[in-house]
Every structure is written in structure tokens, then in C-alpha cells.
Amino acid sequence: MQVHIELKKVVDDSYDITIDKLPKIYFDTKVAVVTNPTVSALHLDYLLSNISAKELHVVTLKDGEEYKNQESIDAILDSLFEHRFNRKSMLIAFGGGVIGDMTGFAASIYQRGIDFIQIPTTLLSQVDASVGGKTGMNNKYGKNLVGAFHQPKAVYIDPSFLTTLPKREFAAGVAEIVKMAVTFNKEFFEFLESADLSDAKVLQDVIKQAVETKANVVAEDEKERGLRAALNYGHTFGHVIENETKYKEFLHGEAVAIGMVMANETAVKMNLMSEKEALRVKALLEKYDLPTHYEISDVNTFYETFFLDKKSSDSAITFILPLGIGDVVITDKVDRGTVMCVLNKFGKDK
Amino acid sequence: MQVHIELKKVVDDSYDITIDKLPKIYFDTKVAVVTNPTVSALHLDYLLSNISAKELHVVTLKDGEEYKNQESIDAILDSLFEHRFNRKSMLIAFGGGVIGDMTGFAASIYQRGIDFIQIPTTLLSQVDASVGGKTGMNNKYGKNLVGAFHQPKAVYIDPSFLTTLPKREFAAGVAEIVKMAVTFNKEFFEFLESADLSDAKVLQDVIKQAVETKANVVAEDEKERGLRAALNYGHTFGHVIENETKYKEFLHGEAVAIGMVMANETAVKMNLMSEKEALRVKALLEKYDLPTHYEISDVNTFYETFFLDKKSSDSAITFILPLGIGDVVITDKVDRGTVMCVLNKFGKDK
User: Fold this and answer.
1) Does residue B149 sit in helix, strand or coil?
2) Judgement on whether residues B155 and B22 belong to the same structural domain of the protein
3) CB contact under 8 A, A146 and B204
4) B11 in a domain, yes or no?
5) Residues A215, A128 share a domain
6) Does residue B28 sit at the A interface (CB-CB below 8 Å)?
7) Is residue A339 within 8 Å of A266, Cβ to Cβ?
8) A231-273 confidence digits (pLDDT tens)
9) Does B315 touch chain A if contact means CB atoms closer than 8 Å?
10) How many domains does chain A have?
11) What is the pLDDT of residue A308?
């Protein structure tokens, strides 16, 4: 005896990303702004002067990746419960990727899901975290291992927030932009080679192109079953570097920059990419003072650490390797010898 | 400058509910069975003899609604991380509604969502929790306040599990069946009036009809934006009763039984339902020894407690009132006087 539960339906999670000076935003619901002390000190007054809501609360979490945990999620949820938020209430993520991911995750599980919008204040979160709907938190087993896919209702990217962003963090954002260009958009890559990001109009345009590039990928593969995995270019190696340095030495984008260089070396070794193209990517990263070298103290340990990465299946590591600039292959068919050869180039004795 | 993120798509969360002796089930992935000591002692061997998997782990949570909390969710997640479950791994909820809700919630957030199947062992979870995709846990603010909508890949209802179910729990399941009949299915109600649930074939058929009735509602309104709220018939009052008795005196289904009687009294008072129909519902509940009376110690406190319920918006309480048997109205236009008049009938001095 069987009953078929028919739940095939059209879901529309579409939304708009506005890249401009923050507009006035009106809500006829309760709203909670989730932020951290750093962003709050610099920009909260500006934000609040643009928001009108039925009731407005601010939840301030500690600043830093090390607080991207259950305690911070609970702090958000507790505030919503204390202020009796209901299913129509709204969250606003106001900060970088950590704030965005946690706010989105809290929104996804509060009363089985409420709406949220993103107002990202770092270049990285503007170009990366604002598209894709990935939300989550870290735990003792690793980064982003608990979370949900939950799309924002809207994203407001105001590039003027970037004027207060430390130079290193700005560059870390550029690394992810370069990543999108190398993997999917050759014209964009060439544009970046000659672009002057200190020009506000150019910067706005670059953010737009990065967002569009990522949006095209996510639209085709929201839940990362195929194509979207290509955005992990640089991350297979980068995650190991972050892991080995306990997330203290490099910003995420910096580790990804080195990871891209390592991936390129692998691609060159496998004749997927020319040496000249690999050098162009490296030169673009160096233009923004991004690190492109990391001294591996033990290549075997480095290799083993690949298998801690959740994106790896039980027996094979997935590599994202450029096919020149603007195209990419996702493969778990890279033999250990090839990888070790690349790792040895970064080894201690070299 | 604006970028439109187009995420309109067809999602197919359809699945089958098998109501029969548990078949042999084969998985080519890692599987974790989540259960509790009570169910485990009675039925785990039987379950395991029917399951074949690449790797099989059992997570045993403490038994009871009071353990439907973050600690239990963490216990599930920890086990998955320890055994390196990946995105293709599978959870099996093996127990009642508490196990089902928590397993589904853990599945929804582990690595941003993995699959799970339900093998419910109580009548309540077989007819209620197995359809609808509601998952979650309790916290200090109330029941099911944190969670997600996450549909199972399949549900296997084996009525033979019910032979070991305590009589009170069986009756509590019948209460939810009566609820579905009164709200949506008059023929089913009439069938129940003359049905003998001790007959295995009849029981199987009743489970099927209950599941179908709920499935029709959920298919139309998965996220409870309208129609589905009608399944909260009996719950507006029932939740307050559970709250007042600290979830100790009544099983959920028992509180809902009393809640339905209270809702019916309200409907009779408002001329939506005849007194005779209200008596038929009461008689059917009493046929299964379900409680139909609760002595309210303070009617004003009882009324105020409605507003703690998350399903209530800020200013109005939503009531689900039968329009006779087999139809229902969802309304927040019941004046305080009418409700107080009904509550007084259950008041201490009566």
C-alpha cells in the first residue's frame, strides 16, 4: 500500500543586487540588524539613518572567524525570541562574510525560516557571499560544516563601505574576483589586468562583473552538484594552507591566492594551461600584493590534509584546474605523483 | 546599477510513503539510524535485519520530548562528523515524532543538507510527522521554534510497530487522525465512527486515509502560508493546556483532543457547527478513551497564554474552527468575549 506525496513545484528565490549608494529602505515588519563592533563603530549610524522599520533591534556579535559558531547563532536567535519576532520579521546581515553566513543561517532556522537581506561591507562578501545562498557556521570539525542554502530577499552593495576596509582585506576580496575571472570569464580577467580599482567607477563596475559572473554559475547549479564546484578553484589547496596555519596567518582570500597559484602549477604540469597564462594570473595577484607563495613544511602531511576537506569524497580529492584563462575543469583524476611534484616546489628545502 | 539573480526553478521533493511490512532497503552510502533506547530495545534488530548499507551507524538519543533540544541535535551531528559522513550519506529516523523531527533537522543542516528517510514507530508520527517536512527542536522559548522544512526521501510505515505501543500513545495518534477527518474529510470521519482499529487491515487503511488527507493539504500549502494552518485545529487551545501542565500531564494528542472539543464549543457558539456535530466528534474521541475535559484554573491566564504561541501574530489569535464536519475556517476574528465564554465552561467553578 503506497501513497505518493507530490511536491513538485516552482520555487522563485530570485532577488536583486543593488550596487550603489545605500537607498532608503522601509520595512513594515520587525527588523534585526546583525553586525559586529568593528562595522558598527564605522557604519551603523549611516545604516540606521537609511532604515525605517516597525521595530528595529541590533544584535552585535564578536568580530572574527573564531566566533562563527553555535554561540553566535544562539545569540541571534535569542534576540529574535526575546523581541518576539514572527515569521514575517526580517534580518539584515551587516558586515563581512562571517556576519552574512551566520545571519543567513539563523534566518533559515528561526521558526523554520524567515527572510533576510544582505548589506555586505567587505569586498569579499560583496562579490562572493552575496551571491549563492550558502549560509552556515564553523564547528570543531571544520569550517561551514553546519548550515543551509537560504537565499536573501535582496542584497545592497554600497562600495563606499570599502573606503574604511584595511588594504589587506581589500586585496583578499580581489583574490576571489580574480578566481571568478580565471574560472569563467576571460574578458573580465583582461579587464582586471589593466583596471585601476582606486577609481570608484571602475571598482563599482568590477564588483558588478564579479557578481554577474558568479550569478551565472549559481543560477545553473544552486546546490553545488556540478559547475558551481568550479568556484572552489584555489580552495582545495587554500583550505589546507588555512588549516596548517590555523587560520591565523592568512586571510581566506590570501590562502586562496596561493591556492590558485598551486592549482595553476598543477594545471601547467598536466598541460591544461600554459606557463605564460599561469604567470599572468600570478602577476595579477601580485599587483594587489597578494601572497603567491607558502612554504610547506611537510609535503606528505599537506597531502593528507586534503582528505579532511568536506568537498572531497571518501577516496579522491577534487581539483579545480584552469584550462587556460576563462575556463576550468573539475576533476578527481589527478594522480598523487603529480600533486606531490607540485607540492615539492613549495617544500621547505626549495 | 543592479544585477538580477534569477533563481526560479522547478523543485521536485516528491516521495512515496509505503504502508506495509518493512521491505529490505539497500543503500550504497553511509547510513546513520537515529533512535532512542525504547524503540531500539523493541525493534532495532528487526530494522537492522532489513537494512544493508555501505557503513551503518546507530545514534541513540535519550527518550522524551525534554531531550528534543540542541544537545541531541549536536549528538547526531557529532556522530556524522566522527564517521566522516559526506553529502551523499543518509539518515534514518527510527522512532516517534521527536526522533523524526530532530533527525530531519540534523539532516537539513549537516553540510547544508543531506537526505533522510523516516521509519516512524508511533501512530502519531506515522500519520502526522511523516507528511509535511516540518523538522525542528524545542528551546527555552517553546516547542519547535528552531527548525527547517526538509522533506524525507521516503517514508516506511510498518503498522506492526504499533503492537508494542502503549494504549495511551495509540489513542493520542487517533486524536490527530480525528483532527484530519474533522477538518478535511467527512467520509473519513464517518468511516472512523464505525471502524475497528484492532483489525490490522482496517488500521492500515485508516493510516493510509489519514496520510492521504494530510498529503493533499500539504501539497497545496507546503510552507503553511494558508490552508495548512487548518491542521492546527485543536492546537490553539491544546498548546495552552500543554503549556499550563508543563507538558507532563497530557500527551500531545490528548491535549489536542481537549483542544478540539474547546474549538468545537467555540464553533457552536458562533453558529459555525451544530451542537450535534460537536457531540459526534466528542463521542469519537471518547471511543478511544481520549480526554475531552480540562479544568482551567484561571481563565484569564489561559487566555493570555494564547499570545505566547508562535502561530499567533502580534495582536490577534488564530483559531481553526470547524464548519460542521469535514470543513474548517481559519480566523483571527473571534472576539475575546466569545472565547472567554467557552473558557468559562471549563473553568474551575463549573
Assistant:
1) strand
2) yes
3) no
4) no
5) no
6) no
7) yes
8) 899 999 999 999 899 888 999 999 999 999 999 999 999 999 9
9) no
10) 2
11) 72
Q: Taking CA atoms, what residue in A is nearest to B82?
A: A141
Q: Is the dihedral of CA A154, A158, A161, A162 positive or negative?
A: positive
B135 vs A contacts (CB less than 8 Å): 112
Indicate the residue type of A64. G
Task: Tell which A residues from 33 to 72 touch B, by Cβ distance under 8 Å.
Answer: 70
Same domain, B77 and B207: no
DSSP A309-340: STTS-SS---EEEESSSS-EEEES---HHHHH
> Does residue A96 sit at the B interface (CB-CB below 8 Å)?
no
In this structure, are B177 and B135 located in the same domain? no
- Residues A72-91: what's their mean pLDDT? 96
Grid coordinates belonging to A106: 539563523
- Does residue B3 lie in a domain region? no
Instruction: Give the pLDDT of residue A219.
Output: 81
B113 at the A interface (CB within 8 A)?
A: yes
The answer on B182 and B156 residing in a single domain is: no
The residue from A163, A190, A209 where one domain ends is A163
Question: Containing domain of residue B69, as a range?
Answer: 16-163
Q: Is residue A131 part of a domain?
A: yes
Share of chain B above pLDDT 70, in %: 97
DSSP B12-30: E--EEEEESSPPPEE-SSE
- Dihedrals phi, psi of B93, to nearest 5 degrees: -85, 120
pLDDT at A312: 46
Residue A225 annotated among the catalytic residues of the structure: no
| Domain end among A111, A140, A163 | A163
**Is B22 a domain residue?**
yes
Residues A135 and A211 in one domain: no
A264 contacts: CB under 8 Å, gap ≥ 6: A273, A277, A278, A281, A282, A322
Neighbours of B70 (CB within 10 A): 14
Residue B4 has which C-alpha cell? 538580477
Binary contact (B7, A218; C-beta < 8 A):
yes
B157 and B200 share one domain: no
Q: Could you tell me the CATH number of the domain that includes residue B152?
A: 3.40.50.1970
pLDDT digits (tens, 9 = 90+) for A136-160: 999 999 889 999 999 999 999 999 9
Q: Do both B84 and B185 map to the same domain?
A: no
Cell representation of residue B222: 507546503
